[in-house]
Amino acid sequence: MPLVPSSLRRACVLVALALLTATHAEAHAGSVAFWRITMTATTARSEVLLSPDDVHRMAPGAATRETTGPVDVSRLAGFDAALLAHFAIEQDGAAVAARIVAARVLPSGLLQVDMEHASIDPSRALALRATFHAVTDDTHRVIGRVDRRGVVTSLVFDATTPRHVVAALPRASWRDGLAPPGSTRSMVLFGIEHILAGYDHLVFLG
What we know:
Layout: H1 6-28, E1 32-39, E2 44-50, H2 52-58, E3 69-70, H3 79-86, E4 87-91, E5 94-95, E6 98-105, E7 111-117, E8 126-130, E9 141-148, E10 151-157, E11 163-166, H4 184-197, H5 199-205
Parallel strand pairs: 1-9
Antiparallel strand pairs: 1-2, 2-7, 3-6, 4-5, 4-8, 6-7, 8-11, 9-10
């Protein structure tokens, strides 16, 4: 059997590697991340779902290769800063502070990262910014879902539309202009309104 020259073997290996790389890049193009935001009167939390490949692109040193289950947040070296920089909520023209509180690898292989945001008034207008494409490529998109006290808004972020402004919620009561619904102050105002609205209550106070 004739021997294949070493130079030809090396050329074949290089061609095979190039084809594998091109195939992987083509399969990964257009990858989608998911961002779910849930806001109540007192809390704001986010869940971001990313593929392992995209996690590695955002932070090559991040140790997220667990097969499934919880991930030690301290092992996400450099990833937390990248994530918070590219998935941001803005109110009053400034980004709202956030921190990663948990992470886990889902059975699907996606990494779920849970973030906790600083105080946000969900009834007021706010902006959502997702520049995920800046650390991957322009074909990447983010599918977003915002739940503000049961009012759900669906959004798509991409290279052409990385930022969306969500309008203020309509006020259900005059109290909403003075205190976030469900807050202690709002309940106190409701109690005052209830007393003043009933003549029998005023007589009882007298």
